[in-house]
Amino acid sequence: MLLKTSLFLITLLGVVSGRSLVTTNLDLLQTPPLNNEPIIGVLSQEISYYLDGKYPGLYESYIAASYVKFVEGGGARVVPIWIGKPRDYYESIMSKLNGVLLPGGATWFNQSNGYADAGRHIYGIALEMNERGDYFPVWGTCLGFELLTYLAADGNEHRAHCSSSNQALPLVFKDDFKTSRMFMNAPETVVKILENEPVTANFHQYCVTEKNLTDYNLDKEWRVMSTNSDWNDFEFISTIEHRFYPFYGVQFHPEKNLYEWVRNKNISHTSHAIFVSQYFAEFFVNEARKSLHHFEDSKTEDQYVIYNFPPTFTGSKGSSFEQSYMFPVEIAYNVELNEDNSAINGITSLVGDFIEF
């Protein structure tokens, strides 16, 4: 109950020290209307080499199901966002959504028409929305966190190499971390667990340092709440947020504690690890509740949500993801429904016979 109460209080706060997130009109600083049926977009990415090897030539992109579950577990629904689309597609879909999650992964930022290019559109559109007072949060996990700072640096490769695979760590908080939006209402139990127990799951060969931020003048726009050190004692940023907009990044993987069960990867599944991971999910979803975007009606929602696409048990094929949503090249949202409201979608028949094992 303490966790849920604290998280609800987060939704009532709309001001960052020194600047309003979406307005400077003090009359609007009262409790805003909340959207209690938020829908969050999760960006897909190029199919991984591993998955392509197991399902050769069948799919162009994928979303690890743990990110979908992370959002759903926080109290929202999910719409997949495709890569390789023009800007007007992202403008259209984001006008219906209440936030975007940029997931982790193993793709490159210099691949054309992929994850990074889609992220560039999403980041630019989210900036424009928030600038005009249209509250729209963006969350980046691991590679998504790195992408946020990469885009803020105008596409300059600013990351450092580090060695933090299969590494479970407590967070090293900055002195002022409790003044951040991400942690100002965090229950003391959450803070103590994060400070003292190795509950954050790290899997990254690149990272962002405080010097990286300073070198590209990003420290004026982004604040660091915590750091960590890799296996070689190289210090990197582990949590970050934009000073003026509801953009958030974590270098670790809270969704893995909750939903990934691959063995020998040093992922903590203790009750404390689950508790703090759930905190991050609920924090982001509560940020999305502040967005009042919506689809025109429930039937249109049904045509877009992730439920139209079947997850595959990729863990049985040796993947680090227990389940994945994999999409062929010609993928699209449903445009009509059967009489029983089940989806009409070409992908269903394509993968249905193939993935049953």
From TrEMBL:
Where in the cell does this protein reside? Secreted, Extracellular space
According to its UniProt entry, the protein's GO biological process terms are: tetrahydrofolylpolyglutamate metabolic process
Matching Pfam families:
Peptidase_C26
GO cellular component term, pick one: extracellular region
Gene3D superfamilies linked: 3.40.50.880
The region annotated as signal peptide is 1-18
Give its E.C. classification number: 3.4.19.9
Alphabetically list the UniProt keywords.
Hydrolase, Secreted, Signal
Instruction: Return the broad EC class.
Output: hydrolase
Question: What positions constitute the catalytic site?
Answer: 142, 253
One MF annotation (Gene Ontology) recorded for this entry: gamma-glutamyl-peptidase activity
Query: InterPro entries from the entry?
Result: Class_I_gatase-like (IPR029062), Pept_C26_g-glut_hydrolase (IPR015527), Peptidase_C26 (IPR011697)
Q: Its catalytic activity?
A: (6S)-5,6,7,8-tetrahydrofolyl-(gamma-L-Glu)(n) + (n-1) H2O = (6S)-5,6,7,8-tetrahydrofolate + (n-1) L-glutamate
Which domain of life, per UniProt? Eukaryota
Q: Which PANTHER family match?
A: FOLATE GAMMA-GLUTAMYL HYDROLASE (PTHR11315:SF0), PROTEASE FAMILY C26 GAMMA-GLUTAMYL HYDROLASE (PTHR11315)
Task: Report the sequence similarity comment from the record.
Answer: Belongs to the peptidase C26 family.
Q: What is the protein named?
A: folate gamma-glutamyl hydrolase
**Source organism lineage?**
Eukaryota, Metazoa, Ecdysozoa, Arthropoda, Hexapoda
